[in-house]
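#dry-run=false #mode=assembly
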Amino acid sequence: MKFKKTPESLVKDPGLDETIKNLTPERIVQVVNRVLTKENSARLQAYLDTCVHCGLCADACHTYVSRDKDPLFAPVSKVRQTLWELVRRKGNVDGEFIRNAARIAFTECGVCRRCSMYCPFGIDMAYLLLIVRRICSLLGVVPVYLQDTTNSHSVTSNQMWVQQDEWIDTLQWQEEEAQAELSTVRIPLEKEGADVMYSVIAPEPKILAQLLGNMAIIFKAAGEDWTMPATDGWDNSNMAMYSGDFEIMGRVERLHWETAARLKVKKIIMGECGHAFRGAVYDGPRWLSWQYPPIPMIHAIEYYYDLISSGRIKIKQKYQEHVTIQDPCNTVRGRGLGDKLRYIVDALCEKFTDVDPKQEHNYCCAAGGGVINCGPPWKRSRMLSNRVKAEQLGKTGADVIITPCHNCHSGIEDIIGFYNLGMHVKFINEILVECMEKPEESEG
Amino acid sequence: MAQSAEVDFSPGKAQLVDLAALKSRFARIDEWVASPDGNSIAAPVKTEEGRFTICVNDQTWPDSFDLLWMLRYTPAGKLMALVQSDFEWTVAVDGKPWENTFEYVWQPRWSRDGEIIAALCKKDNEYGVVIEDKPWENRFKAVRDFALSEDGKRAAVTVQTDSLGEADVPGFFEGVWSLAVDGQLWDKKYINTWSPIFNADGSKVAAQIRTDICEYSISVDGADWTERYGCVWEPIFKGTNGTVIAPIRHGKNWTLAEDGRPIWSGEYNQLWRHSFSPDGSKLAAIVSPEFGRWTIAVDDKPWKRRFKDMVLEPTFSPDSKRVAAPVKSDGRWNIAVDGEVSGQGWDQIWDPVFTPDGAHVLAKAKQDKGFLVVCDGKPVRTNLSLCWDPIVSPDGQHVMLRYVEDEKYVREVVPIEELAR
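#status=ok
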């Protein structure tokens, strides 16, 4: 089988172009057979035997729909061009094949699992594409920016090379910033025995530090007994899960859970991120032999819902902008938090127009699954792969898109710019802190 | 643990500090810490806008600082904190800041006896280690995992040896991480190095290394094990002969290897946090014999009882005969001793504390908002606002309890028979 030349196949990425030069046929066969026979067996075989090639998954895929239903971008086609060939040829493929398989698996599928809902047999297509990613990772053929993120995880346990002193310094700085708004706010570091450890992903201290200060204000208003670690293990994100480096994925997740255990907290509350939830709650624990997270992990959507619905946080005035929602795949399709998300938005916002399709049927942002982490070389392809998202959002007529996920947030921001939607993105955290009643105000 | 030989274990209960009275003195009081002899309680306090100091019992340190955090008592009873003045950070011990200052200082460590204090530090945008106010002469582009020898005289830290440009993946895989011991780099570089550890006399250092995308091993003083594995976890030294033991992953399963050779025949879904008994005769580790089930294995024999949620590091009794570990099933934490659990379970539990003869096990726990002390699975003090680990007297006859009750800091010494009754 020959790969059809597409504009995407001409994108330059040294993580693919240069690394395939080091591959030998023997190495490819060895890695493919290791992954297919030693790391995967019954589940993979069941999926391969079950798929009847009906193509019902095609219309579920934002990439396929956005690219005028080009059959090359249908989920079944992505598997056919990659995994099926690797199985059929028992790994006897060349470097160019691996390059194209990596392009498809890393940049044209966000492993969002929407297609699985439309498969008559429920085949987890994302799992199949993740097997391709695993093969590529072991061969060293990974988009360079995604691999760099994984390298950062391997060294620092966070995804943006944040140094230990930078992390602590940022928390102390954000505590001071938040005190300008609410003088008694703290960010308690290393408080052993607190009820809650709050964990975030590295973009927060690196480029969106105000979200940390906002959360300190929310915790203060809620009367939460909380802490953050002053050691590695604070980052709950995991791009190694998406690059196929499961050993680094496991190392990152282990440290995250052991940090919570060291601090003796009852639960972890995590910030607004979807893939981090998946890594910390599903993929990471299972690789480490936990059936489920060893300490309860509460996503920010669940936490905000509890705060508002229980009255622990009261809304002072509603947000006046016209808003809509981006349902993050890993927390809405993966965890069923769509109703809670809408409860929060209804409670916070004066004018809300829902997306269509919505909830678990919502289209992926096309940034998750590690796709946005593939970096600038693939941005145009990512934009072309999600025209349907731009159309969906544009139809709402909203001014602001609430995106309770970092990947969604960045991906939707790109789509707004590329398709000139004239909209803005916000985290719930930003709107909540603006609209809620703060303790000193209520005392005053 | 406190130098309990020097501690007064005369039975009795004393309310030492009225914490309620301190609330009106300070605009802000952070987390309290109790001294290992039980006689003092201390917390960072805000004295005025932008000024912080330490309050010990009801006395403040003479100096105040722009910022202050990480207040800790060492086992020797030294009270240390990380402090900032004029945008420079340092370590303050018993009220006196070190002379050397840094852009940042963090991760304090101390010797086994708590007499020597060290920390990571950053100066002129380079990173290093400072021990007792003496910074390493050599500094590095980045540092990460940090270990101090038991006597506190030597330090090892994982360091980045060369600069990398943005997304320099080939450069990264050439290996730019190594270990610096007392400021001197190992000869070798690796893709990754993690978790350095000294042997008991501080003469050797071992660490995890990564030599290829999916090739891991152990290095001792820069001499790598010849074997490569799918993954490894933290190594430890075997006390008697200086060999190194680490969890290794072969295929999908984990076991323990000594100097590269498997020493346990059991193959586990997971295995980590192994440790030797005080006499060196037994080796225990956290293991997962079946997916989603956890327990402790002693000398490769897993306890029969399994726990669904989590098992933490095993602790041997001082006589090496018994093993205890915090365990969690169905959301309840408990202490398992030799595989048996007797308590009702709590929201949170701390590490077990054995009496010297191993007959009794105590632990601090938390239920809802209240702390408690548990002895042999039975709550012996409850509804405490704060509480610290119990400390057993060297003769095993008495236990010192340190807690806050009704806003009073209490030091109480109780005969063990009374608690274990």
